[in-house]
Design brief:
There is one protein chain. This protein is an alpha/beta fold. 28% of the residues lie in helices and 12% in strands.
Length: 304
């Protein structure tokens, strides 16, 4: 067995090792860090609510980003009977360096999926539903029509449920974005993910969109080598677009093929980012080590 390279957390702002883009075998030179700080340790998902939700998703052949992206909050959210639906299949056309969702050639679009999501939302009696997707760059509209159909099905099958959509960039197609907005979701979410300097390595494609006139939300992650100053500057850029809600969380490496963690930000640093964000004009900032885009999503309705 070859000798493993020791983990070295470099100071923010230094040149990344290895200098790969996205997922790559080059990243495996840095082994997975198993000794996480105490504030990142969570309980395993289990219990009756978790099992009921798991059975429901499998019975309707649905995917959740909670499972596919290895969300650390799954025990908490599923235990409370909530989940984030992931439409357009479970295979992404991109290979971002931070994401656990599998990449490859997607299958055909399942046109019955929106109806099954609507039925699951109704069966779960959700007050607020979050819908996201993989990237489907091979589709003419990037999958926007299926987002629109899913919102319509939720409205029909569970009329009292508010809807949040966490959308991909649709390769910058304004018509695709308009198709989603025409269905009037209560919250539109599109994550910026990281600071501008790290985009070529972390998320090779990027499109900026102007925030429409509804509750707009975005999120970033830290721990990939960004500086505090870069994070604050990115937060200011997001706020300047009229964004209402911001989420900030710690990047956690899904596998050795993914980008290494450069450092763990402390709870105190996340608290400071929250306070700084609230001075920028955000209506709400969710900032913490385990925060993800859909964390406490029901609290963000009506914050426009």
């Amino acid at each position: 067995m070859g000798e493993l390279a020791p983990i070295k957390f470099e100071m923010p702002g230094e040149v990344e090792r290895p200098r790969s883009r996205g997922r790559s075998a080059a990243n495996t030179v840095v082994p997975i860090d198993r000794a996480r700080p105490d504030w990142l340790k969570v309980r395993l998902p289990m219990g009756p609510e978790y099992e009921n939700l798991r059975r429901l998703m499998r019975s309707k052949s649905l995917h959740t980003v909670c499972e596919e992206a290895h969300c650390p909050n799954m025990a908490e959210c599923w235990g409370a009977g909530t989940a984030t639906f992931m439409i357009l299949g479970d295979t992404c056309t991109r290979s971002c360096g931070f994401c656990a969702v599998k990449t490859g050639r997607p299958g055909v679009v399942d046109l019955d999926e929106p109806a099954r999501v609507g039925a699951a939302v109704a069966q779960m009696a959700l007050g607020h539903a979050v819908v996201t997707s993989v990237n489907r760059d091979e589709l003419p509209d990037g999958g926007a029509s299926l987002f629109a159909a899913t919102i319509r099905e939720i409205r029909v099958q569970s009329p009292g449920t508010t809807v949040e959509v966490l959308i991909p960039d649709f390769v910058g197609d304004p018509a695709a974005l308009d198709a989603v907005l025409a269905e009037r979701p209560e919250i539109l979410n599109h994550n910026v993910e990281t600071v501008e300097r790290l985009y070529p390595r972390v998320r090779p494609r990027r499109t900026k969109e102007h925030a429409p006139d509804l509750v707009c939300k975005s999120g970033i992650m830290v721990g990939l080598g960004e500086t505090h100053e870069e994070v604050v500057a990115t937060m200011r850029d997001i706020a300047a677009q009229g964004t209402n809600v911001l989420t900030v969380g710690q990047y956690l490496r899904p596998s050795s093929m993914h980008l290494p963690i450069e450092r763990y930000w402390t709870p105190a640093e996340f608290a400071a980012l929250h306070d700084e964000g609230m001075t920028m004009g955000f209506r709400h900032v969710e900032s913490g080590p385990l925060v993800r885009s859909s964390y406490h999503a029901e609290r963000h309705v009506g914050l426009g």
